[in-house]
């Protein structure tokens, strides 16, 4: 299958207060294999939540990581995640200055 898109698929700088951000959405008719990298760019620990599912609103059913503490300057990586068309990667943090990057590749669903 030819790749539709590869490399950086989405990114976000998260807001304080657990405000949910859609970092990446798989296009309709595609599938993707992704790696997610979350970096705490602050000088204090940050708690993050990560969801993958059909909604842009976080739902405990779609929770991948919940209140994971990332040390100042620390990194959390989730890799090799298969994601279906129309699914979204949603992230939030308890403090500002946390960045999320989704990398991988998309291909047409059969």
Describe this structure in words.
This protein has strands at residues 3-14, 21-25, 30-40, 46-53, 63-70, 75-83, 88-93, 98-108. By secondary structure, it is mainly beta. Strands 1-8-3-6 form a 4-stranded antiparallel β-sheet, with no helix packed on it. Strands 2-7-4-5 form a 4-stranded antiparallel β-sheet, with no helix packed on it.
Tell me the overall shape: globular
Oligomer: single chain
Number of strands: 8
Q: Biggest sheet, open or closed, and with what strands and sense?
A: 4 strands, antiparallel
How much of the sequence lies in strands comes to over 45%
Helical/strand content category: mainly beta
Cα separation of the termini: 9 Å
Keywords:
0% helix; 8 strands; four-stranded antiparallel β-sheet; mainly beta
Q: Briefly, what is this?
A:
By secondary structure, the protein is an all-beta fold. It is built from no helices and eight strands. The N and C termini lie close together (9 Å).
């Amino acid at each position: 299958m030819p790749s539709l898109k590869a490399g950086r698929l989405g990114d976000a700088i998260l807001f304080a207060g657990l405000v949910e951000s859609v970092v990446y959405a798989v296009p309709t008719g595609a599938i993707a294999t992704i790696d997610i990298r979350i970096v705490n760019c602050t000088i204090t620990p940050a708690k993050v939540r990560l969801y993958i599912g059909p909604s842009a609103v976080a739902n405990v059913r779609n929770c991948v990581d919940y209140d994971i503490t990332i040390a100042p300057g620390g990194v959390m990586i989730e890799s090799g995640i298969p994601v279906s068309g129309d699914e979204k990667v949603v992230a939030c943090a308890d403090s500002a200055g946390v960045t999320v990057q989704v990398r991988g590749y998309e291909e047409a669903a059969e």
